[in-house]
């Protein structure tokens, strides 16, 4: 399992202690919960004994807590949601700060790409039609017949 921060560990301890207490009050064995929730008994024991390093990723734990709570007659969704809302991973805070710092570096890249596209388009135009780029855009005289005859001579 990935490392949990202190807030995650404390929240997970509170939830698992509550689940264990309710299970013991109802005299339900871990094996019965495992059969009902389809969660391995070893995972449930590790969860109740706070051996969090033996457990899978946090997203899977949320599902286990939801199913475990539902099996005990509790609101499993609320239990798993409390783990999500009360715990903000440290990595996401740093990632958000890094995104704010990187926002300003995208502008020069966009300008570079635009200039690259304009240059590539001009080069492609020159390769496909070199006469157009070498010929003057404005004809020497405005007589349409002379323009047609000039083009026919070429």
UniProtKB/TrEMBL annotation:
It comes from the Bacteria. Residues 135-154 are annotated as: Disordered. The chain crosses the membrane at residues 106-128. Keywords: Membrane, Transmembrane, Transmembrane helix. This is Helix-turn-helix domain-containing protein. The lineage of its organism: Bacteria, Bacillati, Cyanobacteriota, Cyanophyceae, Nostocales.
